[in-house]
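re: that complex we talked abt at group meeting.

here r the seqs, copy pasted straight from the sheet so there may be weird spacing, ignore it
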Amino acid sequence: MGLTVDRLPNGVTKMGVDGQLIVANRNELKEKVLESLEAGDLKFVFDFAATGYIDSSGLGVLVSVSKKIREAGGALRLAGLNEDLAMLFELTKLDTLFKICDTTKAALKGL
Amino acid sequence: MTVAVPSELEFVEHTVDLVARHCLACGLSIKAVRFNLRVALGEALANAIVYGNRLDPGKQVHIAICLVGQAVQVHVRDQGEGFDPDCIPDPRSGDCIERPVGRGLFLIKELVDELAFNDRGNSLCMTLHRA
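got the structure back, here u go
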């Protein structure tokens, strides 16, 4: 997995996941989010446009970091899910827990 | 086809790739292989390594793929104590939805056509029908 972190001028931290978010690499994302929260970042967009697959451990990490962000008073939006990833969120009903947008542009609106 | 996988998570991705190619050759549809099989096998293998074999390097996970009539069966067996699959709560219900764990078995059940366990609970058989 390649993880990119961009701090946008509007104060949003955009994290892009390239490849797969799975049991073997899920902690990379968690550590980056915790570092950003410690640095005072509160608004996050996770961009999955380049993500092929997320396993249940990856979904678990997303649940875990979304809770941390919420507890810190921040907000998280997910964007760019492909058809398979959207199906995973739907099957697990995590689409009811996350704010999911079609594109990063849409996710950034109003955040 | 049979495969013995060491109890290390770094082998999950490559093993799933290997089995997926084999299942494609067996006649499963591209969609079923790309999504249903890959997700279900990845979850089954990770569960077997982490919860079954408890990452013990001295233990292996055994995978067997069989053609049975119009279906492909994928067996995944670990060397652990086994578990009772009926004791795993629905991850969509109540407080479970906010738990970081507990979605793997649910996804397997949702994505394969049939799922069976042995009595001990250390071996599962996932059946996917061919198109």
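couple things i noticed - The radius of gyration of chain B is 14 Å. The first helix of chain B runs from residue 12 to 25.
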